[in-house]
Amino acid sequence: MANTDSKVALVTGGSAGIGKAIVEAFAERGDSVVISDVDQERGEKLADSIRQNGGDALFVKADVSDLDSVKRLFETIKDRYGRLDYAVNNAGIEGEQNETADCTFENFDRTIKVNLYGVFYGMKHELDIMREQGSGVIVNISSIAGEVGFMNLPAYCASKGGVIQLTKTAALEYATRNIRVNAICPAVIMTEMVERITNHDPAIQAEFAKLQPMERVGKPEEIADSVMWLCSDKSSFVTGQAINIDGGYLAR
Fold first, then answer.
1. Which of 9, 45, 64, 151 could be bridged to 86 by S-S, CB 3.0 to 4.6 A?
2. CA 119 to CA 173: how far, in whole Å?
3. What is the domain range of residue 231?
């Protein structure tokens, strides 16, 4: 078991995009951080970078949609640190874009499995550790697509809506046990996923920017800043919330 006085954080899907920004933010403030992802090469590289800069980071390859893989992840965390103070369930996929009638069973099943089951599998282990130690914070990364519909994304919207309700349910269950559970719902954030969806086309990305009243897309670091606030005593009276980081999108 590691001998450390720092807080211990887990970030799933932590090797790129929003997850990477969150990992780096935890490391910057001195927390020990466990990076979980299916991309071992990038995850190991990120963990090495943090350690070279004097931080404490551990990469664990894990598929959040696989029960055995998730179980091994948390066994590793308990063996290494013996506790878990912060958990950010960020791993997710966008799935295929089709009208609901054309959405395949395979696409729907895969998207729900990663985006919703993956959060549920993680929370079961996280809450088990946190209720035993008597404290903890969970932040689930949902989406504004979990609050309003988006054409051609039935599986993604359903999965992210489920994450919000799972968040609220757990928040109520553990409110008196010093465990807070919240969700963050980003709008369009400039990540590799968005670059892929837009085919790396600046013109399409500019159209995406116009979707937000602020007329720009968000930055991964802006999501990370919100996570750091939720994973601090400054938000000690905040639980069960789905916080929109959306440039004003849902204000209309």
1. 9
2. 16
3. 8-188+220-245
